[in-house]
Amino acid sequence: MPELPEVETIKRDLEKIILGEKFVKICVHQAGVIRQPSAKLFSQGLVGLRVKNILRRGKLLIFELSNGQALTIHLKMTGQLVYPGGSSKSRVAFYFTGGKILDFNDQRLFGELRLVDRWETLKFVQELGPEPFDLTCRVFQDMLLKKKTAIKPLLLDQKFISGIGNIYAAEILYRAKINPLRSSKTLLQNEVETLFCQTIAVLKMAIKCGGSSVDDYVRVSGENGDYARHHQVYGRQGRPCFVCKNLIQRITQGSRGTYFCPHCQR
DNA sequence: AATGGGACCTGCGCGC
DNA sequence: TGCGCGCAGGTCCCAT
Q: Does residue A59 carry a catalytic annotation?
């Protein structure tokens, strides 16, 4: 699922392809993914505009446009942006000057595309927690002390911290040797420091690898990201921990899967 | 206020 | 072999 490292990878891939390009035509094959305004106004509104800048906020991709508006794309679970496009899988096809086609694919139709006047004022954006890379350990510790939730669902909470999803929450907690069930405010100073450092380290390494290809995620070129081979716990239930050889467990937490090593993570 | 579960979707893998 | 069910998870929405 596209989390921060995957969306950042897509952002960087796209910068090389469509920065400065002008939309000449939009083909909406699945109107449901266009959340704002109507599919018709969305298409009409984009034609003639250039992509001035590409940003990422949490897991949201933002295309700043030449007239001051913005195209926002949330890939949710199965969204993809693929170039060159023009495939039959495409839910929306973006045509640019010079014949370039960018496809938005989305098997499960959870994705959300919007054309808005100001992306900063979207409710979703306003409620997002801080970017991990903008945090200091000290601020992170203060945030953790204000909550009493289990640490795993807290890391997944986009209002608490933005960009972390189910895969990286598992990998980060494993590397920090912290049990996902621990209440955030019971974490000791040194555990918070390790958690903070591992959060940054895992996300940075995952970006360097082009993200984790599990299920549908691919880079804009269609290639896989390479970080999945660094996964220590995600999807490894019943298999031995690489450190202690005890079996990785899968439990359900907040109605989604949590993978961890009960021996290494305390 | 904070937490939990269901809804939104589709394809896949499993068990019968 | 084939069918139906559960599961996958980002976010929203509602109930508790």
A: yes
